[in-house]
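Fill in residues.
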């Protein structure tokens, strides 16, 4: 259940957030004010103040406190004056749209800092080096503001910061400035910048292997170089150490850390011991200890939260990946059933040799075995080969054949019976081997159909015309509030220009679906239908769709050929989404239990495949293959699939040996039928397909072959009687069909009546 917070709770929560924001901003500005660029105060604190937005005054106070404590108030006067002026402009002049504009805020920052740098140079004359550093730091401050604002915008839109392309360059610059700032923190015996660099290097090695270690090591050196060129020499070895230890990360994080420490120690000794050597090694050890002490789960969670790939294309990729997961599980179940059949037959399939088996069964325990086989110098072997040829030519041998070939044999009768019985068993095994071969051919056929399956899923992804990352992030946050922090969400526009929301959960959803739909509709500012929930193992997919333009009403009727018999027909309806509906009808071979089993199997399998995201064509191909291996007796069934796209207003039929369907529009019938074979007969069974546009008032009738055309045409008379409900119409048509007998006995009867209307 959702908990509604009161106004007092909201205000209290807001005040606590403001206090925490002020404290964190002041602390960040305090720390940033310690930074140095070639010995001159860094502009990072100005960038922090501008980036903090409404917390710019606490940032000013934190910067001022830092300069006062460490006696740098004179050197930091340009930064403090710049923060005050920017704060005044932001609070009095700037429009809200300009406050978050990266370009405008960066130009404002650079302009104000350059202005005060010029004033400072005039008021307190300085040498050219100092004046140039003031200008350089002013430009750096503006660039940092632009980068930070751009990164913030990207993060807000996509939920994480995509660490690639230009974003990667921005992240590298921010990292260099962070290392430079931390390196200026006055700590005894250790350097915070290099410790942070060693920690970041090991963390990047875990994720990006050797490339991550080398890049982060080089960037750390750049950060130390900005602070103090004298420390950059020893720091440069981090790049080499990161490159080497990245090759050992496959053996575990501890192994990578040990290699990193050992390589760094060897490199320090190799370049020569100096005044910074022991301090450098202490920084490396401290960074490694922090990395080992930090839980791996925390590092992964933090990295996934702030850095990753979550662009619009990737959001679609995640959805496609989840669909593939659904599909692979479904195929795994089918493949498991086939594997059981194949394994059962393979146990009986062995290398068959008639004469060897007969010798082992009859002669193995004979007292004359040594005389016949070991002292006859091949006579017995040649005789057995001749007897084997005789058996295979005449399908058996007699005792006279054995006496002729083996006159000294004392087990003529047993040998004759052995050859005849074992030969019969051998023929049965060869027949099984042929069946195994056919089974393997069918399995190969199924593997080839994988291309069709992937094409289906690619088509599903291709339906996505535009993805809204901002709404996707809002929906993800909404599910996190409901207690599902690992939800994968995607809000997109499909090819019919309708908005859709797909959510994948690693648990079963428990809650009020009506309230959930209301919440999602409010976020997307659209009207959605109750979600369609599909679950496979522990993964649940919730599909929200716009309320479609069309709606349908369905009525069905079924009856068996006899009062006490099973119907061989199976009829089912399936709603994947509010827009995508299916009607599935199958007629098994003949009547009774066997026909019922085949039709139920076909319909059940079709439903599972369609839920997994496959097209009707691919579903039919797999059903055809599975029916062929379902049993060695003849097993096939018709398949009649109807897909209704209620958002796009279209219908599509796939018919495989099925009876004709009928479209009743404006008082006229259109017959929809084909000549394809039922599923399960041929390896290549191409179905018939038909499609048409839907209009208000259309009536679609699907039926098995127990319902003739004359019965369906009774629809006009039924409508004239004022009967307009699909269930009543199906009942009337069924009653007419039951009175029509062919050859003195009626067939199984199944009827589905679908009314198409426009949503009110």
């Amino acid at each position: 259940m959702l908990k509604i917070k009161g106004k007092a709770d909201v205000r209290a929560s807001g005040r606590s957030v403001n206090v925490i924001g002020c404290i964190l901003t002041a602390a960040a500005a305090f720390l940033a004010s310690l930074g140095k660029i070639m010995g001159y105060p860094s502009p990072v604190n100005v960038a922090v103040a501008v980036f903090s937005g409404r917390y710019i005054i606490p940032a000013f106070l934190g910067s001022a406190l830092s300069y006062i404590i460490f006696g740098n108030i004179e050197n930091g006067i340009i930064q403090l004056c710049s923060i005050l002026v920017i704060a005044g402009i932001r609070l009095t002049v700037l429009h809200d749209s300009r406050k978050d504009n990266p370009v405008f805020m960066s130009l404002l920052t650079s302009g104000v800092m350059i202005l005060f740098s010029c004033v400072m140079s005039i008021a307190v004359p300085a040498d050219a080096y100092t004046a140039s550093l003031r200008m350089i730091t002013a430009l750096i401050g503006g660039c940092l503001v632009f980068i930070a604002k751009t990164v913030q915008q990207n993060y807000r839109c996509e939920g994480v910061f995509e660490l690639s392309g230009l974003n990667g360059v921005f992240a590298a610059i921010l990292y260099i400035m962070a290392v430079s700032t931390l390196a200026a923190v006055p700590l005894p015996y250790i350097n915070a910048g290099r410790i942070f660099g060693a920690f970041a290097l090991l963390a990047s090695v875990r994720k990006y292997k050797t490339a991550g270690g080398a890049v982060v090591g080089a960037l750390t050196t750049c950060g130390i170089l900005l602070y103090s060129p004298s420390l950059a020499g020893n720091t440069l070895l981090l790049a080499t150490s990161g490159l080497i230890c990245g090759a050992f990360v496959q053996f575990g994080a501890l192994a990578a850390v040990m290699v990193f420490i050992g390589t760094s120690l060897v490199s320090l000794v190799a370049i020569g011991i100096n005044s910074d050597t022991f301090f450098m090694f202490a920084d490396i050890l401290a960074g490694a200890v922090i990395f080992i002490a930090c839980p791996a789960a925390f590092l992964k969670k933090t990295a996934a939260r702030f850095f990753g790939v979550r662009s619009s294309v990737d959001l679609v990729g995640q959805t496609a990946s989840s669909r593939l997961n659904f599909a692979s599980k479904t195929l795994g179940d089918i493949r498991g059933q086939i594997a059981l059949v194949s394994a059962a037959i393979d146990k009986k399939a062995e290398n068959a040799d008639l004469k060897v088996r007969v010798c082992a069964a009859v002669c193995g325990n004979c007292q004359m075995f040594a005389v016949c086989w070991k002292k006859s110098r091949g006579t017995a072997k040649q005789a057995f080969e001749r007897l084997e040829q005789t058996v295979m030519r005449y399908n058996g041998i007699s005792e006279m054949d054995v006496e002729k070939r083996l006159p000294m044999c004392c087990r003529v009768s047993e040998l004759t019976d052995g050859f005849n019985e074992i030969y019969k068993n051998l023929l049965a095994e060869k027949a099984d081997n042929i069946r195994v071969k056919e089974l393997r051919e069918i399995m190969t056929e199924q593997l080839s159909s994988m291309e069709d399956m992937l094409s289906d899923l690619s088509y599903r992804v291709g339906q996505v015309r535009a993805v809204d990352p901002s709404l996707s992030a809002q929906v993800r946050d909404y599910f996190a509030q409901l207690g599902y922090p690992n939800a994968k969400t995607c809000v997109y526009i499909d090819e019919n220009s309708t908005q859709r929301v797909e959510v994948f959960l690693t648990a079963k959803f428990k809650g009020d679906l009506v309230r959930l739909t209301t919440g999602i509709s409010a976020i997307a500012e659209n009207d959605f239908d109750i979600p369609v929930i599909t679950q496979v193992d522990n993964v649940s997919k919730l599909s929200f769709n716009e309320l479609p333009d069309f709606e349908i009403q369905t009525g069905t009727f079924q009856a068996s050929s006899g009062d006490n018999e099973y119907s061989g027909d199976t009829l089912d309806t399936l709603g994947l989404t509010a827009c995508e509906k299916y009607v599935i009808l199958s007629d098994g071979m003949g009547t009774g239990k066997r026909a019922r089993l085949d039709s139920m199997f076909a319909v059940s399998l079709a439903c599972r495949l369609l839920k997994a995201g496959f097209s009707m064509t691919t579903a039919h191909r797999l059903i055809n293959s599975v029916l062929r291996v379902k049993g060695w007796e003849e097993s096939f069934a018709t398949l009649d699939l109807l897909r209704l796209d209620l958002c796009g207003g279209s219908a599509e039929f796939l018919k495989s040996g099925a009876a004709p369907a009928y479209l009743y529009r404006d008082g006229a019938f259109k017959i929809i039928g084909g000549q394809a074979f039922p599923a399960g007969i041929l390896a290549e069974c191409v179905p018939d397909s038909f499609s048409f546009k839907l209009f208000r008032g259309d009536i679609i009738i699907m039926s098995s072959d127990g319902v003739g055309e004359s019965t369906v045409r009774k629809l006009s008379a039924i409508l004239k009687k004022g009967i307009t409900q699909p269930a009543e119409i199906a009942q009337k048509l069924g009653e007419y069909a039951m009175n029509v007998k062919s050859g003195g006995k009626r067939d199984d009867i199944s009827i589905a009546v679908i009314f198409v209307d426009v949503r009110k």
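The mean pLDDT is 79.
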